[in-house]
């Protein structure tokens, strides 16, 4: 196994989508999952500016893990922040610190871009994810409640 962490490129779209779909199954929202490889390609690589950025764990041109994120350019601290939308490692690659390598690469990206914070959410039932984030030194933030406003079209 020869894992390289790098920024995703357009030709990674299919592999990114595959892991997005696996995450949707894991997190139990596959019934509402509306992403296609074409959407990943268009929204992440052809649109300017893109809707998201992505780091990948590459094992000889096979995508072993993804970290999808976007910037929050304006914060009260007058510094950008990064919001992680998806972090997922293919089940066959788990136990090799790929998630940690992706997170550390994102931390480097945040420092380069003068970000104040990296933020994300985790499902309360995802005990493995919670242990992983705690091990990294991340802290749970209970200062705010998450709200959603689902719009009928």
Automatic annotation (TrEMBL):
Keywords: Acyltransferase, Transferase. It comes from the Bacteria. The keyword Acyltransferase applies. Pfam families: Acetyltransf_1. InterPro entries: Acyl_CoA_acyltransferase, Diverse_Substrate_AcTransf, GNAT_dom. GO terms for molecular function: N-acetyltransferase activity. Residues 3-153 form the N-acetyltransferase domain. Belongs to the acetyltransferase family. This is Acetyltransferase (GNAT) family protein. It comes from Leeuwenhoekiella marinoflava.
